[in-house]
Design a protein that fits this description.
mainly beta, globular, 10-stranded antiparallel β-sheet, AttH-like fold
Length: 383
Amino acid sequence: MKINLRILSVVLTAFIIAGIYLFNDISPVEKEGDSGFSVGSLMSDNSAGYKEASEQIKFVFPKDHAAHPEFKTEWWYFTGNIINEKGENFGYQLTIFRNATSPVKPEISSNFLTNQIYSGHFAISDIKQEKFYHSEIIEREFYPFAYSDTAGFLVTAGGWKIEFNSDTNGELPEILISASDSIKSINFTLVPDKKPVFHGDNGLSPKSYKPGNASYYYSFTRLKTLGTMTINGDTHQISGNSWMDREWSSGALDKDQKGWDWFSIQLVDSTEIMFFRLRDFSGNTNFAKGTFIFKDGATRLLKNEDVTLHATSNWKNSDGIFYPSSWTLRVPSIDLELNINTSIPNQELKTFVNYYEGAIIITGIKSGVSISGKGYVELTGYD
């Protein structure tokens, strides 16, 4: 009897996901329509047995583009604002996640036993039509369907791929990303305009004041983007700018932290901002950090007291949950004041974990001169 290995892999994935419930202290959310998991539970500080992000490291490329299975969680995160040949605007997200279900890989030698799950989220925002398309895949680690090569050249999950072409320079790789489902597809080439940016303390990015609640975190903050995109059978030639985030950790959130607001901002003067704030269960900010990236790639650390961020309006989803939809952001030390708005209202992903990931448009004043830009916002823990 011939066994379909892909089907067998999917079946085993279901058992592994069930194992997350049993062995990783993740409780289901008892609300009709929810996926059953929260960001807080998946990113909690339940890190016993895993390696922690507790001290600075020397990043090595291309090796650190690859997976770090000794840590509990990591991701390869791409977002971008792009334009087609007609001048129509779109946003996109492609993310591959790796999650460990236990600190130690099963000792039995078998291609079917693993403690790693790879998953992916793929979304396109059609700004003109105000439509949002998203999909999700979940795969157990199983070559060649879901894995990361150890050299840091390829990460894949269910046919969605991230390829690092680091033949000439590991710090400035050409990156190829591709994904497809029944409605949409992308095939993009991304070229870094700047060297990687290391957030926090030289890449050690604290998420609370508790040691170990941190990640290793670097970004490519401006990636020139070219390629093709297909939506409902229509193919578009696109260009624009993307942003890549790389993080790995084993317990980034403290017990009193429910979720976060994260912003990536690309201004027209070739500067960028990354800023995140973590919220407690009352909705108050209890930790915040960021990075300002100058035109030449130099960086300045932004602390909570350096940035003022206020939500000015909300969007309500079909379940009655409110997400912020516009903000003012001020950084007095660089004489910057920005107005941030989501490009279209509904950019919520309803997946294994529900969250908002959407394109944003930016206007404001920098050093007395009008400025504009684009970017992305991620909102978690509002459900």
